[in-house]
Fold each of these.
Amino acid sequence: MGNLAEQAQPALADLDFLLQRFRQVRATSEAICAPLQVEDHVIQSMPDVSPPKWHLAHISWFFEAFLLKPYLGGYKPLDPIYDHLFNSYYETHGTPFPRARRGLISRPGVADVYRFRQHVDRAMADLLSSPPRQHAGEIMRRVELGLQHEQQHQELLLMDIKHILAQNPLQPAYRADLKPAPKLHQDRIRWHDFTGGVRHIGHAGDGFAFDCETPRHRQFVEDFQLADRLVTNGEYLSFIADGGYARSDLWLSDGWAQINQAGWHAPLYWQRHDDAWHEMTLAGLKPLDLDAPVCHVSFYEADAYARWAGARLPSEAEWEVAASDQPRRGNFLESDHLQPVATRMPHEGPAQLFGDVWEWTASAYRPYPGFRPLEGSLGEYNGKFMSGQMVLRGGCCATPESHIRATYRNFFQPAMRWQFAGLRLAREL
Amino acid sequence: MGNLAEQAQPALADLDFLLQRFRQVRATSEAICAPLQVEDHVIQSMPDVSPPKWHLAHISWFFEAFLLKPYLGGYKPLDPIYDHLFNSYYETHGTPFPRARRGLISRPGVADVYRFRQHVDRAMADLLSSPPRQHAGEIMRRVELGLQHEQQHQELLLMDIKHILAQNPLQPAYRADLKPAPKLHQDRIRWHDFTGGVRHIGHAGDGFAFDCETPRHRQFVEDFQLADRLVTNGEYLSFIADGGYARSDLWLSDGWAQINQAGWHAPLYWQRHDDAWHEMTLAGLKPLDLDAPVCHVSFYEADAYARWAGARLPSEAEWEVAASDQPRRGNFLESDHLQPVATRMPHEGPAQLFGDVWEWTASAYRPYPGFRPLEGSLGEYNGKFMSGQMVLRGGCCATPESHIRATYRNFFQPAMRWQFAGLRLAREL
Amino acid sequence: MGNLAEQAQPALADLDFLLQRFRQVRATSEAICAPLQVEDHVIQSMPDVSPPKWHLAHISWFFEAFLLKPYLGGYKPLDPIYDHLFNSYYETHGTPFPRARRGLISRPGVADVYRFRQHVDRAMADLLSSPPRQHAGEIMRRVELGLQHEQQHQELLLMDIKHILAQNPLQPAYRADLKPAPKLHQDRIRWHDFTGGVRHIGHAGDGFAFDCETPRHRQFVEDFQLADRLVTNGEYLSFIADGGYARSDLWLSDGWAQINQAGWHAPLYWQRHDDAWHEMTLAGLKPLDLDAPVCHVSFYEADAYARWAGARLPSEAEWEVAASDQPRRGNFLESDHLQPVATRMPHEGPAQLFGDVWEWTASAYRPYPGFRPLEGSLGEYNGKFMSGQMVLRGGCCATPESHIRATYRNFFQPAMRWQFAGLRLAREL
Amino acid sequence: MGNLAEQAQPALADLDFLLQRFRQVRATSEAICAPLQVEDHVIQSMPDVSPPKWHLAHISWFFEAFLLKPYLGGYKPLDPIYDHLFNSYYETHGTPFPRARRGLISRPGVADVYRFRQHVDRAMADLLSSPPRQHAGEIMRRVELGLQHEQQHQELLLMDIKHILAQNPLQPAYRADLKPAPKLHQDRIRWHDFTGGVRHIGHAGDGFAFDCETPRHRQFVEDFQLADRLVTNGEYLSFIADGGYARSDLWLSDGWAQINQAGWHAPLYWQRHDDAWHEMTLAGLKPLDLDAPVCHVSFYEADAYARWAGARLPSEAEWEVAASDQPRRGNFLESDHLQPVATRMPHEGPAQLFGDVWEWTASAYRPYPGFRPLEGSLGEYNGKFMSGQMVLRGGCCATPESHIRATYRNFFQPAMRWQFAGLRLAREL
């Protein structure tokens, strides 16, 4: 974001456009929660999951804390304690309410949270209709950041809703009317060649990007090959059938400890019924689609699968080299599958780089050379998480299309599985 | 209950009366939940707490499992999986859904649970209007057990609601219209003398009692003295002021470990604000009433207080000897305080034996000589909990009046504090 | 011990005798450790176990802390820090070194500990040769307590050594020259009848007893029957074969949780090799002796076995009634089996009441009516452990014969198994 | 190691030389343990620490498992169970004895372990005097690997001995005769400039290197600056005095959680006595030397310090660029300080790159492009640990001099502190 600070003053038309976009993004969050019952909004099914009503409030809090309070004269919070309850992890902005206790709070209830949203939305409309002149640039940059933040939470909402409903032996569907997957057969993997050399990696230019995508810098990349599509459920089943989860030589030491301690024998949400594999999806329990990309695997499982397949995961630089000249097309939130699906082949260049599943890379999430976090509390957005996590690239079936780009760095701890994460193979040329 | 098996066949008038009582008890449970928001019904604030909607469903399940399924021909469950979801701990009746996960289940929602209740209520009305002749006695006994069970859960509902709301920094009141405590000054403790000898302890006769209260048997009780009232908040404050929580010599070894590990320095729900003690109650946060009985203390704290005061806790036999010729009057659920209150003195015999707070006794919860649990799954009701728990006597401000009696044995693990529990002093004569 | 306070001044002959006994008891502790390697002295195999060199030092510390420091003018400790390192749990006497960390301390080494013992022994000889007149009675009482304390640790040493060596896949024997078990066939259980009534329970009179055995008081005991011998390994095998560990209806709720969480399917130290049961003993791994008493079972297992056998555990009062007129004969430390063995039948009255294995009773370890702990730090000896534990009676094959009596109350938490504990059946007459 | 496979057949002189080196390295391990008491050899002070006698046995096991068993005809193990007890983590070579239980095993004792060493040494002498011709090259490579492995454990032994003795309130010195630190004043940091570009990183050529140091490959490195010496205790004290441990904005999120959960306020082994900082060293407790390099800090602390100082940690490539043309001189095991010391300034190029303390880098421990682990069980040596760890460079005061080189990659989890680890600052040019 540091680079954005040098942008010029916004025109009125830009403000209008931004307000429009603000309303659109805000509406999408509410549309995502519309199919839920009140009770569904309250559950925290594990410490990493947040209750949907917390998400709805927190993304409003972000606008209140970083825009309304500093820039809207005379702004009155709806309830001062919300600043504590809905602060996620900004230690330099008061004391966040403990994450693992978010599911212990029944009030404010769902209706109260919507009242809070309306309160913030009205005030944001006021702010954007006549922003204080000297701060207009910073305000627009922060609004954009707030919208990108809300889009991240739209994906988190869908991940968390899936996890919450999957705890329930009733196995309720989030929506029965999701768009069904196309029936497509996936051919054997074909390899695309990429020539190495010094490459420019990271974001530069006008469009929005998170601070962690900058600065654009040079990396030396060796020649490599990348598979033309994602690994499928069918391929992953072969790995399981070959004893993949029982062969220590395929696993990182931490991974081997993890699968044994947790008793993992298959991806998250897979269930065996009547001698056939099924999968819990946002449309309820479904027979496993062998041509669809494998999803809800940890980094450890992705890494072990790649080793078993005689390949490896791509580095994030390799992935970015491959993706940088591909169009941003794919199975996103707007496709309304909310589940990865098989792709139509053949395809110019590697398919499924964007959408379907986040692709685990071989790269630890660490700062780029010369990285500088944003100033103030917003500097806590990305930088402080740069330890113990791996980078994932490309977005997934729950990511809003306008949210993703080739330089986007997502990150999760290597044992996490509730995000829509899969893998693509790479190897030396 | 073993003794109930010999009762005679019920008359039709008895059935009518029972159905009336059934409706009344069932209505009370719903009245208790009426002030809650939907969201409040979903929370499990610690593993020992259950979400209110789980309570509402479980007490209906009890009638389904032990009456409708065995005795009502053609009974159809509303949803077969409820038998799994709402079984609390009856291992011999299928596999109970794991207790600690009750708060992870958003469906069935509150409205569904009420539909389940109505379904059971209709079927129970059918069963009680024309019970199969040969089982009528057993049916009536089980209905009575089911109602006593529901009354236990009425108290549990209030304990759990208090705990759920107390987690919330908003400190919401369950009800703003509860009956306020009378302003009464408590005099110094006076001691009542009781002469020892062989005494009959436990339940016998026609009325209802749980299996663990039987058989009536003889115990030798030494001469003893019992305080004329409960220990007050004011007295407990003196214990705190005297360094009670910092003096290892006052504590059982397990208690000393517990208070240090948990960081306890006062009863549960006490909070210090602006240099004054307050207490979270079902009416919200209130200044501490120094004349009211101390409440929400663990056995360890009760035991340490008694040692500090140069006294001890009564044994359950001593308590029963004192209570057996006292009228069952006191501050119960029906008093609508839902909080222990000071008592009007003087009083014939010890005051506050019934109601206000459960009184920790010095006795471990173990079977009486000759104890036999009920037959079948109902045998799991009490007997299997006879380890690691202490007996409490007398009922509390959340106990329905018709539920308590002098022989009633309540039990909790010694570190538990969320029940309405306090203490009364005893000593050698 | 309160009752001991009234004893008269000791004669010189008594002092001589006490010094003799002092030397004898001290020598026994060292004889117990003689077969160990230096390395064996250092291990703490679980938090409940102490390294043998810690035991050797702690039992010397007891004499230093409670006799030498208060009563021997000019006494100089060998090292002041030992007072911290070897204080077990006397919170009112300084800060005990954390129990779970005893195995992290390599120094003082074994030779240093023996130097400490000699230092204490020399000073104790000085003290006993000319005790200050006005304290002579108290000194003699404390010496006796110190010796009883050391005898308790002799049994603990053997329990702990067994546990330490049993962790080792080499399965080393503590001693290869232990006296082998007699080959004796145990007949079916026969029942002895006991008539109920008001009975006197607990210690009174001149001999030594711990404070928790007092005061002698009355209890009402119903008629009961007691088995004529302990439950055998063969009988316990039938319980296992009958699915005892898989039937929830046989278990207390806490016991059921414990065996499932810990994965218990047999007593501690049992191992299955080549389709036959073996048992780790102080003489190494041995085939299971089906006629020997079952040992190393928890209270939960003893309780479940009794339920399976259609019987129950005796209360501690019942046990004491039965034992009070039996001679104190049995398989003790001095028998040099260090393992329970089958008994020669028939027998006047119940056999094996003393020695072989501690017998779990149905009684929680709580104070007798009118109980008063010793004054000062010694009051922490017993009283503060009176929660969460069950009483065991009768001593075992590792108990010094002179240490046990009919009123002796041992106690362990219900899940503990590393002590030599078994059971005897009781039932209603 | 893959690259070593192409080396030519060894000459006899090489074998002689290797045997000589074998004896020397083996003798060093025993010299390290010579000052220990038998009891010290048994302790495992935390799961990451191993008892010294385990180290002594394990480094012998390595030769048995990977050389004697496959290549010495007729080799008889001293005890077959040692193969289980002393396997550290080679899952493909039998089942390793659980790491956290190494401290529960008193036998084999210290004398037995030395017998095992002699047994292995004799057999190794046999093998090296006439190795089977067709395997001679592989044998020599494995012997070298075994010796490098033993050198790693020499450093681990010193780390573990320090940790073991530091648990003890007696604070015993490992050796009183260690060489004292020179009294040297450290000037302010000066910065060395390094010009960026494509650089070759990693090992190539004849000498020994671990597989994880290969293959040599290109990386693009930006211009950077490196401090001319390590961060000192004095500088680190300023960080503490400035509230470093209380300012969330200086810390990675995982680091902030770690220091708060563990209660860290200073490096490991620092203690405050009489208002002055002291440090537990292998020579016992010493006043903190303000000019000596700070040591025993976690990655999180190193990272937070660097942020506080307005700088950052170097990447491992940057470090290697700087070190690759520096002589391998420094404060190593052979210097006999066994503690980092101040350096004599000025210095050609950055000082203290080798020896004193391992330098935390900013780089996660991940495979180099094209990395291939060794074949078979030896492939578990490095590769499987490539997750969740950070790279450290340069060796320390406990590293044998012949063991280190500029390409050497050490790795630890970011919260680990018991290794001799400190830091050097870097920044953008």
Amino acid sequence: MAKKNAFYAQSGGVTAVINASACGVIETARKHKDKIGKVYAGRNGIIGALTEDLIDTSKESDKAIAALRHTPAGAFGSCRYKLKGLEENKAQFERLIEVFKAHNIGYFFYNGGGDSADTCLKVSQLAETMGYPIQAIHVPKTVDNDLPITDNCPGFGSVAKYIAVSIREAGFDVASMCKTSTKIFVLEVMGRHAGWIAAAGGLAAEKESDAPHLILFPEITFDESAFLAKVDDAVKQYGYCAIVVSEGVKNKAGEFLAETGTRDAFGHAQLGGVAPVVAQLIKDKLGYKYHWAVADYLQRAARHIASKTDVDQAYALGKAAVELALKGKNSVMPAITRVSDKPYKWKLGEAPLKDVANKEKFMPRQFITRDGFHITDACRTYLSPLIKGEDYPPYKNGLPDYVKLKNAAAPKKLQDEFSV
Amino acid sequence: MAKKNAFYAQSGGVTAVINASACGVIETARKHKDKIGKVYAGRNGIIGALTEDLIDTSKESDKAIAALRHTPAGAFGSCRYKLKGLEENKAQFERLIEVFKAHNIGYFFYNGGGDSADTCLKVSQLAETMGYPIQAIHVPKTVDNDLPITDNCPGFGSVAKYIAVSIREAGFDVASMCKTSTKIFVLEVMGRHAGWIAAAGGLAAEKESDAPHLILFPEITFDESAFLAKVDDAVKQYGYCAIVVSEGVKNKAGEFLAETGTRDAFGHAQLGGVAPVVAQLIKDKLGYKYHWAVADYLQRAARHIASKTDVDQAYALGKAAVELALKGKNSVMPAITRVSDKPYKWKLGEAPLKDVANKEKFMPRQFITRDGFHITDACRTYLSPLIKGEDYPPYKNGLPDYVKLKNAAAPKKLQDEFSV
């Protein structure tokens, strides 16, 4: 096997542990210098490949690369950019081959979710479709936890832990205040299409009296009167009600609840999130004083409270991707297989990319209680191991000591510019 | 000195470390059983005293009390309730004396902010005004950091750490995404009157290019055009702009910015927070894609990322309050004195309650840069030690193992009810 260089890039929304996968890829590649030359990282995902904006990761020290394991977000820049089909935009693929050839790239590692898996799949077919020999391996990543085949997705476990910890803490707060002040707390979480993250908040409630008392899922059409009755019950029984609401909750008309309530001074919708809408509804109908929070990027960037399971898996998947490449594989994604729930055991397998790309895994209905407002024991059994363990970053001056890489550009070898 | 029982209560908005002060009070009292009998906690602050709803903390194990040190919020319930003056409502004071007498209470420990210090001051005067011998000691607590005399207030350091960590993490996230997606991130933080918490976000920016690039303080009137110019500069220079905004920011007309932008479907103001207003303004005027977060209670309940300095001080102040009582003191508050900045050293002194009650300490103008959008080195020197060190709670099943006390009520001794 002739020695080839590798290309690695990050794609889509970033997570607390995508850099742990980058760390796994680069550290493993460095251990196989006989087969893998340099690892070039795409600056801002696939855009870096198209524009020949390659970061020479060999300029980074072992220590800096090791620090990626505890650093959130995408160290090389990510992108929201999907390659079109070969027929629609052959120029893009010709350009990729040109860049790969110029830099002797034979391995392509793409770190992202379902859309990105589609990009990776298209690259993996370059040998077949355009005669350029490349091995493309996808490294799974998404806080949405919606990739098929893999038991769970790196990035999700840490968001899940953050949300469960946060609603537990806020629940303790409201419980203290509810006698004379706030009785309602609403936490808005990510998940436009699937309720995995909202469900994770449910882990904080080990007893019925614990926060959160209610969860609103995108999978369940919002039923205002049933919801208000449940809220009132909780306040009457426990003195307060803590609610986790997914940004993707819709009403009977199929509209996002977030867009139904708020208008800015000019009448534009979608200024606020769904949390204030739900909180205000409760105030209007039941009269309870509320507080609400929108975690937004804080939830997916919260490396300070990352799940150890998640970090370990993210690293292992990066490592496995390189090992699959060394075994001569193409068009695959390393995937997590759950061996047992208690004790939690997992191993890595592999999935063909054609079965991964553009496919979404939804939350099973049996993970949501019959009334639609909480999670079932089956859901707990699935989710619980994913938030297990802490993996604290080092601190300096009271703050996490995250690494910023030098990200030195590899000298360009091509004359022409390519605009994306 | 005849053996007397003690009363302890929590007041006002809770914090990540107010229970650490409770732990300091109760553990220290338990070490002086010759002088202090039981510690009764007021259920929901002073209301517990007025309604004779006393929690017998002797029913809690040493282990449970020790766990208060790592448990956020108010374990006995807090309240927003201010005693009126003696002239206005003598009945309240007579009732307090009746309850204290019935339960042989000679020590009164009140854990709260400026308003609560006023309550504590009034109780401390009961000996003088109504002939009931009591020693009242205030234990400082407030995330607002606005109590006078004490160098800083327990509860603030942990919020400060949470905000600095969060904006650093979100900054890393946006930096990854800004090439093709989000360019603006706005984090709203607490602080209706003073910008201490917003200022703490500034600690995350160790270089000019670091997040947050801009801070909006309640002390500085919002100047839209200067602000927008700064935002645009940051995006052009760094690719993105991360902003910390205090909920208390006001415009030139003296209105809260939070109330100027949002209207619900019925035209009501104040549905949203200030973060979406600022984000939407940037979108409207500069066209940049944004994300925003409102941390709300998450910030003050975040015991999982508490500052070790803060936890240590909260505990020490609880302990010191009991020791002051044992020395025969009345109408005082233990206070933190800063001995040196680097290395950070502090010790405890005491402050007369009359100098503490109803007085606010504002942020010095020299802590804010001349342009009004960031913190100065003097501010960093002050804030930095307050977020130093981590003090992680224990975890169980991936979640912080916070204690819920039994909170058994002490049998009532009085016949009559008292309504508050």
